[in-house]
Amino acid sequence: MGFSFFASRAAARFLEDVRRPAGFSTAALLLTAASGGGIVAYADSSRPEDASGPPRQDAPRKKKVVVLGTGWGGTSFLKNLDCSRYDVKVISPRNYFAFTPLLPSVTCGTVEARSIVEPIRKMFEKKKKDVSYYEAECFKIDATKKAVHCRSAVGTNLDGNGDFEVDYDYLVVALGATVNTFNTPGVMEHCYFLKEVEDAQKIRKSVLDCFEKASLPNISEEEKRKILHFVVIGGGPTGVEFTAELHDFLVEDLVKIYPAIQEFVKITIIQSGEHILNTFDDRIASFAETKFQRDGIEVNTGFRVIKVADDSITVKSKSSGGEILVPYGMAVWSAGIGTRPVITDFMNQVGQAKRRVLATNEWLRVRECDGVYAIGDCASISQRKIMDDISTIFKVADKDNSGTLTLKEISDILEDICIRYPQVELYMKSMHMLGIADLIGSAVGDSHKESMVVDIEEFKKALSHVDSQVKTVPATAQVAAQQGYYLADCFNKMDHCKEHPEGPLRLSGSGGDHHNFRPFRYKHLGQFAPLGGEQAAAELPGDWVSMGHSTQWLWYSVYASKQVSWRTRVLVVSDWTRRFVFGRDSSRI
What we know:
The chain is of the alpha/beta class. Helix content is 34%, strand content 22%. The longest helix is centred in the middle third of the chain and has 21 residues, at 237-257.
């Protein structure tokens, strides 16, 4: 009672002394007194329009960034982007990232499918509300209205269809590529492909189906040879890796549980070029062909597939022109990549109708298309040629307007030239030149390099062959990943670099100021080719070539370290360990 009494008296004094501030609405006062204690609460419910003080300012609207695709390029971009700066939306029919270099291992059970995939929402869990994901497929890009038209992959909306539209300020196209059949009849109907996880799972079931079918008692020996003939069309890295995995699966696991039909098993590679692995060093291609022949794998080079039927493949010899009929049980097509329909439609909109992929500049922006960037297999960088800007380069370098350039004047902008036109460095390296003096001197024939002076025509002559070293980046996972990382870095520094440019001098057009960013530069980190039998080949930076068992262990370590999460890293390593101990699982699940 004593505490309640004092609490009530205190509340009364509060009511007498409290003065409402001018301009505020009627306050609500709550007094609660009880034997155990008391609470006094005072709250103001509103503020009039004429209240003093500065008006409340809304936060500036975030720019909308829409990312199409969850492959190597799109995922790398999203992982490195500061999503708090933007309103980010991701659109893809595939709600996971797949470590595609291990797809050949999935086809034979060396690695399980779920071990190489990471859910997209799981990857961006830390970003929380900064990233929105829509499981849908983009079927049209409208660059004029800055919107993408999508179709839901999981259901329909209230109008009875799954179509919706998403607008953007910046669009990152990372849709990858599809298979390229070169319009060969029968390929789509009868061949398997190896682009997605689902493709690898289909191949695994088909291999086991072939063995089970060949084991039936009513199948003749001729039919068994046809059913157990596995044909791989395309001798590139994917085709070779799948062939090696399939051979190991057959030799190490299946022939032990199907001993009665092991003599009928055959694997054939059909390659249109003169060698398999023609993008690798010649020593690696020769080593791979020799190993495959030693393992009993038939390597047919110089043959082009012209037709695929349900039980036979027609090939044509490039040397003799003769046609050969090859019976088969299962065929896998890995002979190149093609353009997705949405990319083809977009290229028609932006004046690139005759191209195979989207053309971007060195900063990965789609040419003649504001706010749209393209990375990965769906795009190709069009490196600007130095001869197109030679007059502007000469004018920028000629600071004293003398009409000639000294070696010092050229050296002053040499760094900007090499950053903007990487072919300059490549050309000097290929010609074993130590510096710009050697390049200029070789053209004008001046033995006194330190006092060398050139006019515009001599300058053009010195650089006339440089553009022969313009290189295109390959359509590989590491290129897409590097492009995604680079583009995210540019987005993160966009506001800063508008005030403090980091790029080279503008040497095209009128020239003078600097580009906001340095152009993208691909750094080749090497490439691997697993060849089966715990052997692999590697082509690493510095023209280093490695082949054999030790290279296979290097492959294991690199591919384990490149996994996108510790979860997939542990799963992949455990799958490899399980295979070493128990072999591959031959269950058809």
